[in-house]
Amino acid sequence: MQTLQELLQQSLKPLVRAVDEKAYYPKDFLLELGRQGWLSSEGRSRAEAAEAEAEVVEAVSSYCMTTGFNLWCHLAALTYVRHTSNDALRQRFLADLENGRLLGATGLSNPMKYYAGLEKLNLRAEKVPGGYRINGALAAVSNLGSGHWFGAIAEVSASQRVMVFVSCDAAGLTMKEKVSYLGLNGSATYACRFEDVFVPDEEVLAEDADSFVPSIRSYFVTYQVPLGLGVTNSAVASMKKCSERQNGANQLLPTQPEHLEVRLADVSTRFQEELTSGVSWEGILEVRRQAVYLTLDAVNAAMMHVGGPAYSQTSADGRRLREAYFFLNLTPTAKHLEKMLSTQPV
């Protein structure tokens, strides 16, 4: 097996510009991560698996946060399958999702906002013999394609919501690709419309989604933190490379690499503490909020330090700036985080 850095250098680095400029979806690379064992939970507790996988997300995101985001989508799906009480579903999907035979995604942007009191649920489910029939639409679900599966939550009644695992090839599901994003090209993002999509009982993650969501939401957020850490690391490295340009004028700018490194070390330490002590909802939300603002500060500072070259359309610094602005609006968004943290407990 290659080391992770060897895999990133040989298999991801050559794709980064195509991902950013041509909306190339790095499906084969994502599958290769699993094939080489980087996503296996065998012999690990859930916490140990999350710690190891967070390191992979950070390393991937230091090269390309869009690919890191795709990986987060897949790990979110893995989280749902790992936590489900539907043993048959877990046995059917877990090994394939971990070992590079299947890719997964998450359709929980709208439900997470629903549980925070920000939106209504967009999907409706009707109990029918052998499963559920689902109707409605999701505005954007990423990391999708033929053969992929994703989690979704639909309202059955005022007192019940169900969480299901949906095939992208399901009858009645229409997907329309969304491109020309500011910082999300190459993420295989689609608008999804459900028209009497039948989901059998064996593909139900939880009959009671309200009780299931608290068991998975901390990991849902956990895998997002390293997206920002990876981008921040690369932004700081870029700033250091140009420290002596224009007769050292960069040293007069208000934000220096050393300032960001102190904050990065603090966020990383707090994140590690969450991983090793057992991720708490309140704790990981605060770490996620700090990661957002740190990432924004890092990419903005890098644009100033690098100067003119950063404004080329093919600039890595410009790409990281766009990626950071997507990170700002990844559910839970910055304003979503602020609302949840101001009204704890959630």
TrEMBL record:
PANTHER family associated with the record: ACYL-COA DEHYDROGENASE (PTHR43884), ISOVALERYL-COA DEHYDROGENASE, MITOCHONDRIAL-RELATED (PTHR43884:SF12)
Regions annotated as coiled coil: none
SUPFAM superfamilies referenced in this protein's UniProt entry, alphabetically: Acyl-CoA dehydrogenase NM domain-like (SSF56645)
GO molecular function, one term: flavin adenine dinucleotide binding
Annotated InterPro entries: Acyl-CoA_Oxase/DH_mid-dom_sf (IPR046373), AcylCoA_DH/ox_N (IPR013786), AcylCoA_DH/ox_N_sf (IPR037069), AcylCoA_DH/oxidase_NM_dom_sf (IPR009100)
Protein name (database record): Acyl-CoA dehydrogenase/oxidase N-terminal domain-containing protein
Stretches that traverse the bilayer: none
Domain Acyl-CoA dehydrogenase/oxidase N-terminal: 2-100
